[in-house]
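A quick word before the example. In earlier lectures we treated sequence and structure as two separate objects. From today on, think of them as two lines of the same record. Here is Lipid A biosynthesis acyltransferase written that way.
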Amino acid sequence: MDRPRFRAYFLHPRFWLLWLGLGLLWLITQLPYVVLLKCGRGLGALMYWGARSRRQIAARNLQLCFPDLPAVERKRLLKENFASTGIAFFETAMSWWWPTERLAPLAHIEGLEQLKQAQAEGQGVILMAVHFTTLEIGAALLGQQHTIDGMYREHKNPLFDFVQRRGRERHNLDASAIEREDVRAMLKVLRAGRAIWYAPDQDYGLKQSLFVPLFGISAATVTATTKFARLGKARVVPFTQKRLDDGAGYRLVIHSPLEDFPGESEEADCLRINQWAESAIRECPEQYLWAHRRFKTRPEGEPTLYKKRR
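And the structure line, produced from the sequence above:
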């Protein structure tokens, strides 16, 4: 995929409101990091009360995944999750626009040798992650230390798509954002010995998915991880990230590659992935993207687990 280029079309009046919003966000992100964290928590509080449908989805997910947690604790976790989501709004802007020298000190990376060793051996890497609210800044911080490509979904607004792609690709001169439906490009970069960020923890429907447990609930889980690892001759290397409570930045951990992967069957691989995802989420559940309807697709005959949208 070619690098994003600025077009005169982006100066059309239809984009002026977006330009204004982006400019305001850029100005806010010049504030100190600790101030941005507080701003994010404030935004999260507004979202908690204003985004009713998302709040209901997140609350339902927490109820399904942590049924033994007292209701008062789940509510506290829900509010913390919205605070984390609000902070992520400013973290995204930081990852797009902060100078490298300002962003880099926030990174506390462990296991970088896993990627360097694979690169030295010409081995492709599927950097397997989950959708934490810190995913944008986590990828940016890691990208400053090692070239990683990323799966990408084109935004409907061409100006926002331009800003988003340029922000994501700026940390590596040769990094690229790959459209998530472009399997051929995905396999090409893996066979070339590159590392690509990939998260298989969302519900993409029945197509190319199997039902395996996640938090004890049957969850439609994509089999693509197995296919990519096999066809791309790649290692699957788990990657986790966490926003540190003391405001010191982010702990990024590149774990050891999964052994004997792919395994005996796609179902066994999916189960293994979900078990890993569950353990990663349990480490910092307040920073996970609970507003996604993870259990939307149900096995035949099972009722929906969410309220119907109006």
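Notice the following. Strands lie at 107-110, 124-128, 148-152, 177-179, 195-198, 209-214, 217-222, 234-243, 250-254. We will return to this example when we discuss secondary structure assignment.
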